[in-house]
Amino acid sequence: MILSATNAATVTDSSSTKANASTDPAAAQDRFLKLLVAQLNNQDPMNPLDNAQMTSQIAQINTVTGIQQLNQTMQSMASQFNSLQVMQGTALVGRNVLTEGSSLAVADKTGKGGFELGSAATNVKIEVTTAGGQVVDTIDLGAKAAGRHTFDWDASQYTGSTEGLQFRVTAVNGSTKLDSTALNLAKVTAAGAEDGQLVLSLSNGKTINYSQIKALV
């Protein structure tokens, strides 16, 4: 009779600890050794288990045990890493961050947003719009260098609702229109972990991955 490592690793008892025992490397190895001893005691004297077969079986169970131990170690490391990420994320709570998006954050009658230019512009214009796209104000920022910028909008003269206000960026170099990326400004309100990634909850109701942050403001 040949005892395979697969059979040894899946032998379980009928107690309530069956699931834990089947994944415990030490328990799997103990079961294997007991089965091996039982096999040696009951082997056919005319056809005994040879050394090569025994060595092969021991090598297989050691491989299975090693893989199980490695999996447990990696799971423990992943759990510790997630906890460390969340601890680091809590340091961002209360900070303002820029992420891709065109929502305008308004507080104390001042709207704030940002944008990113791939190349220098001779003129940059910001249009503040309602959620439906109606322009309510325009800001001329003049020439801007390539890179990331922020802007403020004086909302003291605006009498409509500030909920859902958006903005769009128009950047040109002479007569050539340039690519630009609108950036939301929002405050981090909470930090957590999801699928091994640090996630942050923002004051605008969005949830983002840490990698989506463009800058701290």
TrEMBL record:
Keywords tagged on the record: Bacterial flagellum biogenesis, Cell projection, Cilium, Flagellum
Positions with biased composition (Polar residues): 1-23
InterPro entries named among the record's database cross-references: FlgD (IPR005648), FlgD/Vpr_Ig-like (IPR025965), FLgD_Tudor (IPR025963)
Boundaries of every FlgD Tudor-like domain copy: 85-214
Source species: Acidovorax facilis
Pfam families the record matches: FlgD (PF03963), FlgD_ig (PF13860), FLgD_tudor (PF13861)
Protein role: Required for flagellar hook formation. May act as a scaffolding protein.
FlgD/Vpr Ig-like domain ranges (all copies): 105-173
Protein name as catalogued: Basal-body rod modification protein FlgD
Superkingdom as given in the UniProt entry: Bacteria
Region feature Disordered, mapped onto this chain: 1-24
